[in-house]
Amino acid sequence: MKKLILLFALLLGSALTSHAQGTTGSETPRQHRIVMQLVSGDTLVHKGLMRQLRNMLEAAPTMKLEVVCHGPGMDLLMSDRSIVAGKVKEFAGKGIVFLACENTIAERKLDRGKIIPEAGFVKAGIIHIVERQEEGWSYIKAGF
To answer: Do residues 27 and 60 make contact, with C-beta atoms less than 8 angstroms apart?
Structure first.
């Protein structure tokens, strides 16, 4: 009887540990789809975003992630202004998608040729974010 109780306790402990970790061992990892909005031109926000991206990639290396830049946030993608252009290129190489808002480019009269080549474009940043949310993506606003 003692052996049966010990076996039951071990099985229960194993099940609770698996449940606490969010998996039963046979489940596949969740495929996260995240769209981040960057509207800040603050370089401290840009540095913080790079740390967040690194942490997110370490925690969920298979996630899909888009960073949509508009308004002053476009400075992140401008080769003549960005203090983290090297990191943006590095993260783009790891599958993170950086998107520049064409409305902001027109409104701020930005030189499209100075946007880092790793960035893509969307007509309206905020509409792209809304569309992603409608598709079930999670939304995060970058910054303080």
So the answer is: no
Per cent of the chain over pLDDT 70 is 80
Q: How far apart are CA 94 and CA 115, in angstroms?
A: 19
**Residue 23 to residue 30: CA distance in whole angstroms:** 10
Report pLDDT digits (tens) over 8-43.
444 444 444 444 444 445 566 678 999 999 999 999
**Does pLDDT of 137 surpass 80?**
yes
**pTM for the complete prediction?**
0.80
Q: Are 78 and 114 in contact, with CB atoms under 8 Å apart?
A: yes
Give the residues across from 35 on adjacent strands: 66, 139
Whether residue 77 contacts residue 122, with contact meaning beta carbons closer than 8 Å, is answered with no
b or e along 100-125 (b: 16 or more beta carbons within 10 Å of the residue's beta carbon)?
bbbbbbeeeebeeeebbebbeebeeb
DSSP 60: -
Residue-range domains of the chain with CATH: 1-26 (no CATH), 31-141 (3.40.1260.10)
**In terms of DSSP bridges, do strands 120-122 and 64-69 run parallel, antiparallel, or are they unpaired?**
unpaired
- Report whether 104 contacts 77 (CB < 8 A): no
